[in-house]
Design goal:
alpha/beta; three-stranded antiparallel sheet; 16% strand; globular
């Protein structure tokens, strides 16, 4: 329905998608090419690199800002495997107070939230960091993958900022949407671990790329797409021209594999982020274990290709 009217004009060009309404959460990468059907399904990324843009004017602003941006001195900082739950084995033997969620008025009770540990995010971060020289990287894992660490670190030093954690969308208070980081410190005391949208807008970045990996956006029926757009816009405002983020609750293990391939193609093969994401997604599609679009098509690159 979407592609057939323009099929003859597509060729093998890069496609820039500015979606409206429901189209903002359609995984264009997974749409079948107009020529494919049934068992001969061929996703759009076989012949096309696909970039998502909030608007054409956003791209113009990003390019103007990019001319003034200072080049970051180091390559990568990664935040991964935060401590979410009082049942986490890393909290064994710690004294804990009752956890509250001061950042989310509508999610103030324990029973409202159940954040399971994302086991593969640690493996994901370690695989990515191994591609970067020690003096060019920084890792923040476990209790250190916290809101306080994000806010107190000079993120402008890093070309790539990687978050391997959960995202959340608050249906009653959309302004409280954000990323979930460690909810306890290493003494077992509860923390405010929610990096909210206003926190993100106030970050100072010189990053070429921000990656929001393994995000669990929790979008409501009436606001589909808004959470993702909000986080993306926040990071762009903070100083990055491009963001990789997910359209749905992604598979932890598959995402780890996708991100490993994505970073290898960027950092070892020298591909641009858009081309690297396409190549990694095609690799997953050809892998029988992860061939379903569910495993690889959630991630989109928004902004400057």
């Amino acid at each position: 329905m979407i592609l057939a009217p323009v099929a003859r004009q597509l060729g093998q060009r890069r496609l820039l998608v500015v979606g409206d309404g429901a189209l903002q959460y359609i995984p264009f990468a997974a749409l079948p090419t107009p020529q494919s059907s049934g068992s001969k399904y061929q996703p759009l990324i076989v012949d096309h690199e696909i970039i998502n843009l909030p608007s054409a004017s956003t791209l113009a602003i990003l390019r103007q800002d990019d001319k003034q941006r200072q080049k970051a001195a180091k390559t990568l900082i990664a935040f991964a495997d935060p401590v979410f739950s009082r049942d986490d084995e890393r909290l064994k033997g710690k004294v804990m107070d009752k956890i509250i969620y001061p950042s989310f008025p509508s999610l103030a009770r324990d029973e409202d939230i159940n954040f399971a540990r994302l086991l593969y995010t640690r493996q994901e971060a370690e695989n990515i960091l191994s591609l970067v020289p020690i003096n060019q990287r920084q890792q923040e894992l476990d209790f250190d993958a916290s809101r306080a660490t994000v806010l107190n670190t000079d993120l402008s030093q890093y070309r790539i900022v990687h978050f391997a954690t959960k995202g959340i969308f608050d249906k009653e208070h959309p302004e409280f949407s954000g990323l979930v980081l460690s909810l306890f410190n290493n003494q077992g005391k509860p923390l405010n671990g929610f990096l909210r949208l206003h926190d993100i807008f106030n970050l100072h970045l010189s990053a070429d790329l921000v990656v929001l990996s393994a995000c669990e956006t929790g979008l409501g029926k009436d606001v589909k797409g808004e959470g993702l757009v909000g986080l993306t816009r926040g990071f762009m405002y903070a100083g990055t021209p491009r963001v990789v983020a997910s359209l749905w609750n992604v598979d932890d293990e598959a995402t780890s594999e996708l991100m490993k391939a994505f970073y290898q193609k960027m950092l070892q093969s020298g591909m641009k982020p858009g081309a690297a994401l396409r190549a990694a997604q095609l690799e997953m599609w050809h892998n029988q274990q992860y061939t379903l679009p569910y495993y690889w098509a959630a991630f989109t690159l928004q902004g400057e290709w």
